[in-house]
Design goal:
The complex is a heterodimer. Chain A is mostly helical. Chain A has helices spanning 6-40, 46-56, 60-70, 75-85, 89-96, 105-113, 117-130, 135-159, 175-187, 191-210, 213-230, and strands at 238-239, 245-246. The chains are: A mainly alpha, B mainly alpha.
C-alpha cells in the first residue's frame, strides 16, 4: 500500500463523515424503534434491552429476538436462529480482511464485534476510495455512526416506549430499508455490482417466501455475487489491498 | 428491574461473534485467490440489496412469509432514485420518511 496525499485523505474522510450522517439517522431511527418494540411488545426491562444493544449488537437479530422470546422459543433455538441471521457477517469479515493486513490482533478482535451492515458499507467504501486501510474509516462508522446512535436511541425508545403508540406514522420503519437500498446504490460501480444487487434482492425475496426471511437474506448475500461473477468485468482502476484491482465505489459521491 | 434476559444477550453475542471475527482473525483470509476476492467485492451490494428488498417486500403473518406491496416500496424506490441522481443518501432518507408520513396521513398503508 502506497502513501496517500494528506489532502486526498482529508477529502476522503470528509466524504466519509458526510456519508455517515445518513447512517446516524438510520441507526438512531432503527434503534429507537427497537427500544420501543422491546419495551412494549417484548416487555424487556431497560437493562435487558440495553444489554441486547451493547452485548449482542445485532440489529435485525435483536428485533427477531423480541419475537422469539415472546413466542417462548428455547434459548438454544434462539441461539441457532441468531447464528443463521448473522451468518452474513462471515462475508463482510472476509471482505474486510485484506484491508486489515498488518493491524494488531486486538484491533481486529474489537473491530469484529462492531462489524454491522452499516459499518461494513461505509468502511469498505472508504478503503476502496483511498486504496488502503484507514483507522478513521473503520472506527468512525463502527462507533460514531452506529454503536452510539444505536444504543442512545435504544435507551430513548425503551424509556419512551409507552408514549409513542404508532412509530410507523412517523415513517421510522422505512429508514432501515431505505438506508440499505441507498447504500447499495452507492456500492454499484458497474454491471457486476448491479447484477449482484438485483440477484441478491430477487433471491432474497424468493427464498424468504419459500423458506424464511432469515434464510432469504443469507441466500441473497451468498448467491447474488455468483450471478454478478457471470457478467464480464468492466475496466477497473482502483487499487485494492496488496495492489489488487477492485471496482471503484461510488459511495464517495453520496453526500448530504 | 428484571435482568433475566441479560444471559440471552450474552448467548446472542457468543453465536454472532464468530461470524464477525472469522475473516478478520484468520490470516488465511488475506491470501485469497483473485476469483474469491472478486466474489467478496460483490457481497456488499448483494447483501444490502437483499436486506432492503426482504424488509419491504416480505412480511410474516401467522408464522408464514407473505409478499407485500405497500407504501414503503415508494419510499425506498424514491430513496434509490435520489441517491442515484443526486448521490445524496441523507436527502434520500429524508424523502423516504416524508413519503411515508404523508402517505399514511392520507390513509395509504
Amino acid at each position: 500500500m502506497g502513501p496517500i496525499e494528506p489532502a486526498a485523505l482529508r477529502a476522503a474522510r470528509r466524504q466519509l463523515v458526510l456519508d455517515g450522517l445518513g447512517i446516524i439517522v438510520s441507526a438512531a431511527g432503527f434503534g429507537f424503534v427497537y427500544g420501543l418494540t422491546a419495551r412494549t411488545a417484548g416487555h424487556f426491562s431497560p437493562i435487558e434491552a440495553m444489554a441486547m444493544s451493547l452485548i449482542a449488537f445485532g440489529g435485525a437479530a435483536q428485533f427477531a429476538a423480541i419475537g422469539f422470546v415472546t413466542t417462548g422459543l428455547s434459548w438454544p433455538v434462539i441461539g441457532l436462529l441468531t447464528f443463521l441471521l448473522n451468518a452474513r457477517h462471515v462475508l463482510y469479515s472476509a471482505a474486510l480482511a485484506p484491508w486489515f493486513r498488518g493491524r494488531s490482533m486486538a484491533e481486529r478482535a474489537l473491530a469484529a464485534h462492531l462489524l454491522t451492515d452499516e459499518s461494513f458499507a461505509l468502511a469498505i467504501a472508504q478503503f476502496r476510495r483511498i486504496g488502503r486501510f484507514d483507522a478513521v474509516g473503520y472506527w468512525y462508522p463502527a462507533i460514531v455512526t452506529t454503536l452510539i446512535p444505536w444504543n442512545v436511541a435504544t435507551f430513548a425508545g425503551v424509556m419512551l416506549g409507552d408514549a409513542i403508540i404508532e412509530p410507523s406514522r412517523f415513517g421510522i420503519d422505512v429508514i432501515f430499508p431505505a438506508a440499505m437500498a441507498g447504500l447499495t446504490v452507492g456500492l454499484v460501480s458497474g454491471r457486476r455490482e448491479l447484477v449482484a444487487a438485483l440477484a441478491g434482492a430477487a433471491i432474497g425475496v424468493a427464498s424468504s417466501l419459500a423458506i424464511s426471511p432469515t434464510i432469504g437474506i443469507i441466500a441473497g448475500g451468498v448467491l447474488g455475487p455468483l450471478a454478478g461473477l457471470i457478467v464480464p468485468p468492466a475496466a477497473t482502476g482502483a487499487g485494492g489491498p496488496g495492489g489488487r484491482e477492485t471496482p471503484l465505489p461510488k459511495l464517495d459521491d453520496v453526500t448530504p | 428491574m428484571s435482568t433475566d434476559l441479560v444471559p440471552l444477550a450474552v448467548l446472542m453475542f457468543a453465536v454472532t461473534y464468530p461470524s464477525r471475527a472469522i475473516g478478520l482473525l484468520n490470516p488465511a483470509m488475506e491470501r485469497l485467490p483473485r476469483r474469491a476476492l472478486d466474489y467478496l467485492q460483490l457481497v456488499g451490494p448483494a447483501v444490502l440489496a437483499a436486506l432492503a428488498a426482504v424488509n419491504v417486500m416480505v412480511a410474516t403473518k401467522d408464522g408464514r412469509s407473505i409478499f407485500v406491496v405497500g407504501l414503503p416500496w415508494l419510499s425506498v424506490l424514491l430513496c434509490i432514485a435520489i441517491v442515484a441522481w443526486r448521490r445524496n443518501l441523507f436527502l434520500g432518507l429524508i424523502v423516504a420518511v416524508a413519503i411515508a408520513i404523508v402517505g399514511r396521513a392520507n390513509g395509504l398503508a
